[in-house]
Amino acid sequence: MTLAVQDPRTLDASNQIEICFNKIQRENMEGILLLNKDLEVEAVEFQIWDDHIVGMVVTPWFLNLVMLPNENDNWETQKLGEKEKHIFPSQDLIMMFNEIEGFGRCKTFSLCSPMNDFHNQEGARIAGALFLRDLLDESKRVEPTYSETQIANYLEKEDMVHQEELKEKMEPIEIKEEVNRRDLIRGTIRKT
């Protein structure tokens, strides 16, 4: 269930996160070239979903989904940088355990970094809001075409489909010994 953004918990989290990231920008980010000078820190559409506060954070250096722990979560024991799959209504995301300086533990998912493609704050805000709305909309769910194992194999430069599996699925084609261009164009390359 999603509660309105006016919920005191979400307003408090939004304000706290903006304070923390503005401090981080002032103290740690000034002069860094990857900053988009047209953007500022903003918490976008923080709301309660699945008993957690979730929302988007726009900064001049990233656009992230942020999930805050609820009172039953013990994220202090999780190693920072550790990743965990989280199931949202429209898709599954791999979120990372993180800690916001001056705020505390959270899970994050980076949507964009650096922020060079955004020409103004409104564009970044809208991109974040649309991502979050789509993420929480079950009607937008699309089942993945490939399994996580297949994707990992591909990323590790292995075949997406093992050759033996492919051979079993393919219908054998008997081809004429000699194929000329006319037969190829007409699709008459099989033996008759």
Question: Could you please say which CATH topology of the largest domain applies here?
Answer: Yope Regulator, Chain: A
Tell me what the CATH architecture of the largest domain is: 2-Layer Sandwich
CATH superfamily of the largest domain: [NiFe]-hydrogenase assembly chaperone, HybE
Amount of helix: 25-40%
Tell me how many strands there are.
6
Can you tell me about this structure?
The protein folds into 2 domains: 8-140, Yope Regulator, Chain: A; 148-186, no CATH class. It is 30% helix and 23% strand. It has 5 helices and 6 strands. It has helices at residues 8-29, 121-135, 148-155, 163-169, 181-186; strands spanning 42-49, 52-58, 63-68, 83-87, 92-100, 104-112. The N and C termini lie far apart (63 Å). The model is unreliable at 1-5 (pLDDT under 50).
Brief summary:
The protein has 192 residues and is α+β, with helices and mostly antiparallel strands. The chain has helices at residues 8-29, 121-135, 148-155, 163-169, 181-186; strands at 42-49, 52-58, 63-68, 83-87, 92-100, 104-112.
